[in-house]
């Protein structure tokens, strides 16, 4: 394949020194405009700080819009532990019972999506997930920042933290050349912990054997006929569990040499649009999201799998005879890279025992959901029914680095715990808390680690966040 691969022998060159334009100075700089970044901008601006959010794409939303991770996962407590055989709702049947655990910034976003006709509200019909239209999500994200009073700069890729005596901003590569944005506090919402790592924070990657969760390239299909699919499921109830299955059809296609599925089943979700589904069935293993060669291969392999899977749908799955691919992700979806080591490391026991912490700043109910780093197989372990686990503020404070807070999937936790808190609603909640903490730190001229957690909690609650159930 004509993909440029990592050179076997590494040689280096010395680059010339350069100057950068100081684009702006602000109290709080948020790097990354995905769910965590949106939550951080909302929280910091609502707390009264001057805020700039910088994003590498020409739109906001991160994995929600660039990678088409649809729907927003449930952020409700649950009672059931197993999906219903033969259900044709196309939404999870075990992900909620009606008690929300996240509000605040996420509540603002969901309200905008629903009012804009771009999402179905969480309910028993949707398994308390939020199916959304990614284009309306982009508009809602801009509206969210505009309403909060946050400034933003697009088309700028963050290459490193800007360090004087301590972290004091970030360096961005742009079409206008390198620029620097100075800030009292930086919130790293890159997903990969890029700013924290470049500032010297320690981090972990993957599980003990080095394996990381596989990547996925998601895609949307249109002209889906649900009635025909429902009829198939009614006749074959053992082949579909709410949102995944089709094992017999997979086997037939594999035996015919028309499908080589790297995961164990087909997974797709319903959409706000009647004839559209979002497909999450590709699996790209042995790749790391901080490696440019791996990312290049992952994009190639992901699109190969998308073509194969969409052809399988049209040929083998009732209801998809006239279906076609509307859109694939602008980028492959990366589940796991760096996990920054903070003042506390969240563990699987914290998640599975729904542990409480005095410095709680966000709640989680999503199960441990580990996609096998080596191939087929997905391990699910639920949070106790009716309960939620606490994420402490200490998980957002990197060890040994000042003036920087992390949020999203790169916060401090173990590999297994990360498989739960990596999802978008929890990322947005930790972003919300990180933004509030950063705003208080900037206003009081102290490093984030010295901000009293009760001050952060008080402001989060004022902004509508939920910290106990």
Note the main sheet. 7 strands, mixed
Distance between the ends: 52 Å
CATH class of the largest domain: Alpha Beta
The Cα radius of gyration reads 22 Å
Oligomer: single chain
Order of helices and strands: EHEHHEEEEHEEHEEHEEHEEHEEEEEHHH
Q: Architecture of the largest domain in CATH?
A: 3-Layer(bba) Sandwich
Continuous helix count:
11
Structural class call reads: alpha+beta
CATH superfamily of the largest domain: FAD/NAD(P)-binding domain
Proportion of beta-strand residues: 15-25%
Description:
By secondary structure, the chain is an alpha+beta fold. It has 2 domains: 21-79 and 101-208 and 337-462, FAD/NAD(P)-binding domain (3-Layer(bba) Sandwich), CATH 3.50.50; 219-328, no CATH class. The chain is built from 11 helices and 19 strands. The strands form 5 sheets. Strands 1, 2, 3, 4, 5, 6 and 19 form a 7-stranded mixed β-sheet that branches. Helix 1 (35-46) runs parallel beside helix 10, helix 2 (105-115) packs across helix 3 and helix 10 (424-444) crosses helix 11. It is globular. It starts with 20 loop residues before the first strand and ends in a 7-residue tail after the last helix.
Which key phrases capture this entry?
11 helices, 6-stranded antiparallel sheet, 7-stranded mixed sheet, FAD/NAD(P)-binding domain, alpha+beta, 469 residues
Quick recap of the structure?
By secondary structure, this protein is of the alpha+beta class. It is built from eleven helices and 19 strands.
SSE blueprint:
Elements: E1 21-31, H1 35-46, E2 51-54, H2 105-115, H3 134-148, E3 151-153, E4 157-163, E5 167-173, E6 179-188, H4 194-198, E7 203-205, E8 219-222, H5 226-235, E9 240-241, E10 244-245, H6 247-255, E11 266-270, E12 277-279, H7 292-316, E13 324-328, E14 338-340, H8 348-352, E15 360-364, E16 368-371, E17 378-381, E18 389-392, E19 404-406, H9 415-421, H10 424-444, H11 453-462
Parallel strand pairs: 1-2, 1-6, 2-3, 6-19
Antiparallel strand pairs: 4-5, 5-6, 7-14, 8-12, 8-13, 9-10, 10-11, 11-12, 15-18, 16-17
Helix pairs in contact: 1-3, 1-10, 2-3, 10-11
